[in-house]
Amino acid sequence: MRENRFELLNGAGVTRRALLAMPVAFAGLAAATWPKERPVPDAKENGTGKKVKIVLFTDDGKRVGEVELQQIRKSDEEWKKQLEPDEFVVTRKAGTERAFTGRYWDNHERGIYRCVCCGTAVFSSSTKFESGTGWPSFWEPIARENVRERSDASIGMVRTEVLCTKCDAHLGHVFDDGPPPTHQRYCMNSVAMIFIKA
After folding, report:
1. Catalytic residue among 115, 117, 167, 187, which?
2. DSSP class of residue 59?
3. What does the domain layout of the chain look like in residue ranges?
4. Is 118 a catalytic residue?
5. Rounded to two decimals, what is the model's pTM?
6. Which end of the chain is more exposed for a tag (fewer CB within 10 A), N or C?
7. Which candidate, 25, 149, 151, 36, places its Cα nearest to that of 86?
8. Helix or strand or coil: residue 18?
């Protein structure tokens, strides 16, 4: 018995059975891109790089205090063993996830956001706002010491890149079009962070 064929835009034929299986395949792909359960890196871990000061926070967002630690330095191979492929591309190679695809762009729960690479607290839900851009946006970091900024001219225009102070992970960019009181929009990549629900 011959199966019905559906024509796609490129003219290639697809069987009815294959067409009906597509939602299952896409569901599997979505599940594969959702973060796997794994321990959050310890923000108190000492590295081998230069000394930096960061502010430690409990998982419920309480400020513990400032500490001086050595930056986390790892080879690309070491980072690849620790991170998912999309996390590696964004945090270690300054990639950007597509708008409206990240796990936190529409997250409205209370909690804190930690760096996916080293566990440093970087943002709080108390400063998160709906920017309409499709990326998680905040009007300030949880502590200025925990992120650093540098000029980025990688796409032919000058932007301000935001990095984790402790491990130099690329988190996103900051723009001057945010809400009061800072008028800043810290536009972050979901895959660069782990959300800890309060």
Report:
1. 187
2. T
3. 1-34, 51-197
4. no
5. 0.81
6. N
7. 36
8. helix
